[in-house]
């Protein structure tokens, strides 16, 4: 009764804890009292026996999975939609999970594609369940573990204070990238209310800068900036997910770009 939320970290095989029926009952009672729970575990959703708390997450364990976690990206429509991470944590038998009823997939593994995080909002409780190891997420430009925790706390309705955290960078509808997916040639469209210079930086999923463009002339209104990475394919640029960071004056916007040159 002293706590608004709980974070339960069950780990990934072979360093995992199997939730007992007694523990699951206590957590279910906490949710019945209006609590919020984040719970992660590589085996708890599909392989381990369910406990009374599992049904509150509205998660379907689709497959016991394997060791194929790679790049984790946010799903459109979820409160983690703009997040992107590479993964360097424990990577054994990662459960593949999906939503039940009105639950929502928050994060997916990109290749092969399957759900790894699901949220659910009940009448008086809220849950977030994931199958990866949070500590294994690798921060990328504009997408950090600190910010992800802040978004979860916000979903739980719990206030927090930023400490030693840089200014948050979020996507904005004034910036668009197309075509997406792209063969390597794409256009960045920026709609500006006033004159500003535009800087475009493109990062791969390891955080490495692969392309940079700085316009020395200030523009206003709608501008189109064409970029071409197709000539770099095979020399450090590969098919996959990229983060486009667009700096317009003092503001920074983020977009995701998938390059698939098949």
Description:
This protein is mainly beta and 262 residues long. Helix content is 9%, strand content 40%. The protein is built from 2 helices and 17 strands. The protein has helices spanning 21-32, 145-156; strands at residues 5-9, 36-40, 59-63, 71-74, 84-87, 96-99, 104-109, 114-121, 126-130, 137-138, 175-178, 185-196, 198-203, 209-214, 219-228, 240-248, 251-259. The strands form 4 sheets. The protein has an 8-stranded mixed β-sheet, sandwiched between helices. It has a 4-stranded antiparallel β-sheet with strand order 14-13-16-17, with no helix packed on it. A 3-stranded antiparallel β-sheet has the order 11-12-15, with no helix packed on it. The longest helix has 12 residues, at 21-32. The radius of gyration is 20 Å and the shape is elongated. The N and C termini lie far apart (56 Å).
């Amino acid at each position: 009764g002293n706590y608004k939320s709980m974070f339960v970290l069950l780990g990934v095989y072979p360093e995992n804890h199997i939730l007992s029926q007694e523990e699951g009952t206590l957590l279910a009672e906490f949710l019945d009292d209006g609590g919020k729970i984040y719970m992660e575990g590589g085996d708890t959703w599909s392989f381990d026996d369910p406990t009374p708390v599992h049904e509150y997450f509205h998660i379907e364990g689709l497959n016991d999975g394997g060791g194929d976690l790679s790049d984790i990206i946010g799903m459109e429509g979820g409160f983690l939609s703009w997040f992107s991470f590479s993964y360097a944590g424990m990577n054994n038998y990662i459960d593949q999970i999906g939503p039940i009823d009105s639950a929502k997939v928050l994060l997916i593994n990109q290749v092969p594609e399957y759900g790894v995080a699901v949220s659910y909002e009940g009448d008086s409780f809220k849950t977030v369940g994931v199958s990866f190891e949070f500590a294994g997420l690798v921060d990328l430009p504009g997408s950090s573990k600190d910010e992800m925790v802040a978004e979860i706390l916000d979903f739980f309705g719990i206030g927090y204070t930023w400490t030693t955290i840089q200014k948050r960078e979020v996507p904005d509808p004034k910036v668009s990238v197309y075509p997406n997916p792209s063969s390597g040639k794409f256009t960045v469209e920026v709609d500006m209310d006033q004159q500003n210079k535009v800087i475009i930086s493109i990062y791969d999923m390891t955080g490495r800068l692969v392309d940079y463009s700085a316009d020395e002339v200030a523009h206003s209104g709608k501008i189109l900036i064409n970029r071409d990475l197709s000539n770099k394919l095979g020399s450090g640029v590969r098919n996959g997910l990229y983060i486009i960071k667009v700096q317009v004056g003092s503001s920074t916007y983020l977009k995701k770009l998938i390059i698939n040159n098949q």
